TrEMBL record:
<dbReference type="GO" id="GO:0003677">
    <property type="term" value="F:DNA binding"/>
</dbReference>
<dbReference type="InterPro" id="IPR013762">
    <property type="entry name" value="Integrase-like_cat_sf"/>
</dbReference>
<dbReference type="InterPro" id="IPR011010">
    <property type="entry name" value="DNA_brk_join_enz"/>
</dbReference>
<protein>
    <recommendedName>
        <fullName>Tyr recombinase domain-containing protein</fullName>
    </recommendedName>
</protein>
<keyword id="KW-0233">DNA recombination</keyword>
<keyword id="KW-0812">Transmembrane</keyword>
<dbReference type="InterPro" id="IPR052925">
    <property type="entry name" value="Phage_Integrase-like_Recomb"/>
</dbReference>
<feature type="transmembrane region" description="Helical">
    <location>
        <begin position="131"/>
        <end position="154"/>
    </location>
</feature>
<dbReference type="GO" id="GO:0006310">
    <property type="term" value="P:DNA recombination"/>
</dbReference>
<keyword id="KW-1133">Transmembrane helix</keyword>
<dbReference type="GO" id="GO:0015074">
    <property type="term" value="P:DNA integration"/>
</dbReference>
<keyword id="KW-0472">Membrane</keyword>
Length: 311
């Protein structure tokens, strides 16, 4: 990494940079164009934004927002850590006690992945929006049974899906338990609210199975021959790196369009539906289908689509 500092105007910097690039090309010195930054007063280096006008070094806005979200999530938990009534939120800690609490918070942070942070923040922010609209004087914690029931009703009013609401309730109860408050997800009332939500929001699964009739098995065999026997994921690039889900989904969509299949009913999950359906039509037992699909419940039954003959 090389920096060139120069006085204004900016034309001086552009002229000097171009001279250097011409000289580098003349002597055969390789310069990566994607890593070459034109004259600017703001530059991101090592994750920090350097500002030569304000003479500041600061976090970029995206990282600053991430830090704010993390602090917002853990402040809820840290402020009530170790108590059921939040009585320790205003008292001062000794330096030693404060350091132990920070270590404890870091340990708890390690229990969540990056994606989990984002999801938990999303659920908390949605609950905060609910409180701000209907109960602006209320605090986030503790969450009462009444408020959680009303929050579920609020989510239905906002047309959220059952899976989303179920996840929100689970995440809010996680925060509730981490703060030392009762777990409301085990409540009979909450269970019945979610059950009723699911029934009212129930809709037919229109996804169709991708079976050997659609996906020619010999094409997979040809791919396996080309890939060879080596460790790693089945579907990967030539360098061995796994194919991202987004890339796979996009290529599947293009292939289905080329084959004249309706992409509205054939999705990535259609492979899982097709495998279960094909296995069932071959007479494979339910226990083996569940085992092969790594299902731990009776959810596999929803994936079996066997044509029915109406007489």
């Amino acid at each position: 990494m090389t920096f060139y500092l120069y006085p204004p105007p900016i034309e001086i910097g552009q002229f000097n940079l171009q001279k250097f690039l011409d000289f580098a090309a003349e002597i055969g010195l390789p310069i990566k164009s994607e890593k070459t930054v034109l004259p600017t007063t703001k530059l991101i280096f090592l994750g920090l934004e350097l500002d030569s006008e304000k003479m500041e070094i600061r976090l970029p806005l995206d990282k600053l927002e991430k830090v704010r979200n993390l602090l917002g999530f853990f402040s809820i938990r840290f402020q009530t850590f170790g108590t059921r009534d939040g009585s320790n939120t205003n008292r001062c800690f000794t330096p030693y006690e404060g350091s132990l609490r920070m270590i404890a918070t870091e340990i708890l942070e390690g229990s969540l992945t990056k994606n989990s942070f984002q999801n938990y923040n999303r659920s908390i922010n949605y609950y905060k929006d609910f409180l701000a609209l209907y109960f602006p004087a209320s605090s986030v914690l503790p969450i009462s049974l009444e408020y959680l029931v009303l929050f579920i009703a609020y989510c239905m009013h906002r047309q959220l899906s059952f899976n989303t609401v179920s996840s929100y309730v689970s995440m809010l109860n996680y925060v509730q338990k981490m703060a030392g408050f009762p777990d409301l997800s085990k409540s009979f009332v909450i269970k019945k609210c979610l059950e009723g939500f699911r029934k009212k929001k129930a809709r037919a699964d229109t996804r169709l199975p991708i079976t050997p009739a659609i996906l020619k098995v010999h094409a997979v065999w040809e791919y396996c021959k080309m890939r060879g026997i080596q460790n790693g994921p089945l579907f990967c690039f030539m360098d061995g790196k796994p194919i991202p889900r987004q890339y796979f989904t996009r290529q599947l969509q293009l292939s289905l369009q080329w084959a004249g299949c309706d992409t509205a009913v054939y999705k990535g999950h259609s492979f899982r539906i097709g495998a279960a359906s094909s296995a069932a039509m071959m007479g494979i037992s339910s226990d083996n289908i569940q085992l092969m699909g790594r299902w731990h419940s009776d959810a596999y039954k929803k994936y079996i689509r066997i044509p029915v003959l109406n007489i």
